[in-house]
Specification:
5-stranded antiparallel beta sheet, mainly beta, globular
């Protein structure tokens, strides 16, 4: 699965279970389902109903090891 994004990405977060990638842009929120290889687009006010974690290499401690999250292809 590939999804191309231009400028305007604010954040990318991952569900704790690694099944979803949530991309917040200036246009809205995309939820990428890694297992089903599908994308659902939502308005900018959308908040996912599942817990999220971010993979920030500058962050000192993560709730879980981000290397265990299934790989999804994002092109920014």
């Amino acid at each position: 699965m590939k999804q191309a994004y231009g400028a305007g990405i604010y954040s990318t977060d991952f569900s704790i279970d690694g099944k979803f990638v949530v991309v917040t842009t200036r246009l809205g929120v995309d939820v990428l389902d890694v297992e089903k290889k599908s994308i659902a687009s939502h308005d900018p006010a959308y908040t996912p109903e599942f817990p999220l974690q971010s993979c920030d290499k500058n962050q000192t401690a993560l709730a879980q090891d981000c290397s265990k999250i299934p790989k999804a292809t994002l092109r920014c």
